[in-house]
């Protein structure tokens, strides 16, 4: 069988070079053009890396045109319906769904690493009471490295890498819940080994001493689905950041902290928070027609948050899954007295019926529904992105582990198209 190649010709010199084409299991083919500079003396200019494959990966696959999301080959629809978040975590880290005993062992391992070092609890006191939760999350996760030096000193040891993964998965809900408690001035609630992952997280977030937090099975299922849907999403900005940081041989806690810092950006993890702010700005159903009119006006800067998606050009499969549980939760909580949810439901109706939205495929996305679920569960607006980070931790650490398993990890080094001043000579300050 002949080797598939693509030929690149420099019309200035007439020189042509053939480069091999690599085929994946799914998705477009890839041109292996790493020697382009060596062969033709040129780089590829690709702002935002829109057409650049920076790595090979077996973890997650997205087909934005068809609305497909696979974790290790399993459709997200099947996992959301049948799996727990911890089962999905095991799948992402290990590559296969766990058997019964493996599930028990993995869950027990997570449960016995949920506690934070008491010294780390004192670290929280260094933050202002009004600090943004994401700034605290970056700091506390980065500080984990000072309590687990073995994961810093020997990242080439598979057992140490796995231990780091377990610690991050187990401690992230505790770290997040403590951030919430610190900001509102309540005492920390210690994790309990007899509770499930989601139950434990919500209990630490909302219970008070001697009074456990009670929430419905629908609320629990809604949060579990959100965690599953946000567990990984291919080579997005924060995941790429984790990999780039890891390529320098940095320890996993700092790599994940770097991912958290990237997620903090409103163009990435802050989208569901922006949805709620938009709904609050609209305020009432009667204001929707005017808001939609402004949105449709090309000369108006008004934006409609939570509709459409950069990757999914047909529909967001995660939104399809989360929509039903969102509606069920809102109905159960009797939120009819809250205008914000009424506005959201009317916006959803318009998006699904209005030709303008249908033609442009501006469907409600996962951020639209997750924002409403977080709001309905009583999670403060400034904690929304922290919740996203808790869910995405398994994706970050799985991608980091996959990269570290490669025989030789090259440090990332993107190139540039320099457009600054040409070479010039220094001029003394007296002659400037």
Mind explaining what this structure looks like?
The chain has about 425 residues and is mostly helical. It has two domains: about 45 residues; about 375 residues, Citrate Synthase, domain 1, CATH 1.10.580. The protein has 19 helices and six strands. It has a three-stranded antiparallel β-sheet, with no helix packed on it. A three-stranded antiparallel β-sheet has the order 4-5-6. Helix 15 runs parallel beside helix 18. About 35% of the residues are buried.
Concise structural overview:
It contains 19 helices and six strands.
Topology:
Elements: E1 5-10, E2 15-22, E3 30-31, H1 36-40, E4 60-63, E5 68-71, E6 74-75, H2 76-82, H3 85-94, H4 100-111, H5 118-123, H6 133-143, H7 150-153, H8 158-184, H9 197-206, H10 217-229, H11 237-246, H12 252-263, H13 271-282, H14 288-296, H15 317-332, H16 339-353, H17 355-360, H18 366-376, H19 384-404
Antiparallel strand pairs: 1-2, 2-3, 4-5, 5-6
Helix pairs in contact: 2-10, 3-19, 6-8, 6-12, 8-9, 8-19, 10-15, 10-18, 10-19, 11-12, 11-19, 12-19, 13-16, 13-18, 15-18
């Amino acid at each position: 069988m002949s080797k598939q190649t693509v030929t690149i010709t420099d019309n200035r010199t007439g020189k042509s070079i053939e480069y091999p084409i690599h085929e994946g299991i799914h998705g477009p083919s890839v041109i292996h053009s790493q020697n382009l500079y060596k062969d033709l003396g040129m780089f590829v200019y690709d702002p935002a890396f829109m057409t650049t494959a920076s790595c090979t990966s077996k973890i997650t696959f997205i087909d934005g045109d068809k609305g497909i999301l696979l974790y290790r080959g399993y459709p997200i629809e099947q996992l959301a319906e049948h799996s727990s978040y911890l089962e999905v975590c095991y799948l992402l880290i290990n590559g296969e769904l766990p058997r019964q005993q493996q599930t028990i062992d993995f869950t027990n391992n997570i449960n016995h690493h949920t506690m934070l070092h008491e010294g780390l609890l004192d670290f929280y006191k260094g933050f202002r009471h009004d600090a943004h939760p994401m700034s605290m999350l970056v700091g506390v996760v980065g500080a984990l490295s000072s309590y687990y030096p073995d994961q810093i000193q020997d990242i080439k040891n598979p057992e140490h890498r796995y231990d780091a993964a377990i610690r991050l998965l187990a401690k992230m809900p505790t770290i997040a819940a403590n951030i919430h408690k610190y900001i509102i001035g309540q005492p920390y609630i210690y994790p309990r080994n007899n509770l499930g992952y989601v139950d434990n997280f919500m209990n630490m977030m909302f219970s008070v001493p001697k009074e456990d937090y009670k929430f419905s099975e629908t609320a629990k299922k809604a949060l579990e689905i959100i965690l599953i849907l946000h567990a990984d999403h291919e080579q997005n900005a924060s995941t790429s950041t984790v990999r780039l940081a890891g390529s320098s041989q940095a320890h996993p806690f700092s790599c994940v902290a770097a991912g958290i810092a990237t997620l903090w950006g409103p163009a990435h993890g802050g989208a569901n928070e922006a949805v709620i702010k938009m709904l609050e700005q609209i305020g009432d159903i009667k204001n929707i027609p005017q808001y939609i009119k402004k949105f449709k006006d090309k000369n108006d800067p008004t934006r409609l948050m939570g509709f459409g998606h950069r990757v999914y050009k047909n529909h967001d499969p995660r939104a399809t899954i989360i929509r039903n549980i969102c509606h069920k939760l809102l109905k159960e909580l009797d939120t009819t007295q809250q205008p914000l949810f009424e506005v959201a439901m009317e916006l959803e109706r318009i998006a699904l019926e209005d030709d303008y939205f249908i033609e442009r495929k501006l469907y409600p996305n996962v951020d639209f529904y997750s924002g409403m679920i977080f709001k309905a569960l009583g999670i403060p607006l400034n904690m929304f992105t922290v919740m996203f980070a808790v869910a995405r931790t398994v994706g970050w650490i799985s991608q980091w582990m996959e990269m570290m398993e490669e025989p030789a990890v090259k440090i990332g080094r993107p190139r540039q198209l320099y457009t600054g001043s040409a070479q010039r000579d220094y001029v003394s300050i007296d002659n400037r």
